[in-house]
Structure formats: C-alpha cells, structure tokens
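Entry:
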Amino acid sequence: MFADVLGLDRVGADDNFFEMSGNSLLATKVVAALQERLDRKIPLQWMFLDPTPSGLARRIALPSAEGESRRPSPW
C-alpha cells in the first residue's frame, strides 16, 4: 500500500512513510486502502504513531482495544 500510494517500486518494512515524501493526505489514502482490504476500521492516527509498514502491521495485528489504547503523550 505504501509503495502504491507513494508511486514507488518498493518500500522496505522499516521505511518511514513520511520520510519518503508521504503526507497526511497520502496517509489517508493508505488507511482507506487498508480498511477496504482488511474490512476493518484503522484509525488514521496509527499512520502517525507507526509510520513504517512493520510498525503499522504490528499495530493492526493487536486486538482492537490494545492498538487503540496506546496514545502519544501530549508533551
């Protein structure tokens, strides 16, 4: 999904979406595509908390309550 949205041939498991020219609008496209494919709600916030394919996959694999309970500190 990352490579498709960014127009790249490949994206590594630990490549940061935002460091590869991703932005919030493109992140929305990734999340929408994942939601459609997985038939599951995925909060957009997760893209900002875990902006790598491996990080996002780990978060998605968690039971819903666990994945949503990890929030960044406001400071």
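Residues 33 and 39 are 10 Å apart (CA to CA).
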